[in-house]
Amino acid sequence: MSTLERRRAARANQRAAAFVRFQMAGDAEAMQVVLTEAAEDEYARLAFVTALASLAAGTATSAFGRDGALTYFQSVATNSAVLSEADNIDDYFA
To answer: In sequence order, what are the residues at sequence separation of 6 or more whose Cβ sits closer than 8 angstroms to the Cβ of residue 50?
Structure first.
């Protein structure tokens, strides 16, 4: 990995961590700023998403253990797939 790639990865990690922190604090405006910065180019978008996934995986593994985290993410993916195809999606949130 080159110096430039390391710097870009560090910036992506910084943005991802800030985004999660702002989401937890309920600061939608700050979240929008981070998303706008992260969308500056294709590489920045991919790096941001990768960093966000890494943070999520690390947090879930710490909370649930590796197998529990894998089960959790499979459940989220399965349930989200069902919801995305549901004709009555709003009924699930009533």
So the answer is: 12
> Per-10-residue mean pLDDT for the chain, 94 residues long?
92 95 95 93 94 96 97 96 90 81
User: Torsion-angle region of residue 26: left (phi > 0), alpha (psi -120 to 50) or beta?
Assistant: left
Cα separations in angstroms, 62 against 9, 58, 70, 76: 22, 6, 12, 17
Residue type, 18: A
Total domains present in the chain: 1
Cα R_g (the chain), whole angstroms: 16
Residue 28 lies in domain: 3-93
Kindly report the pTM of this predicted structure.
0.81
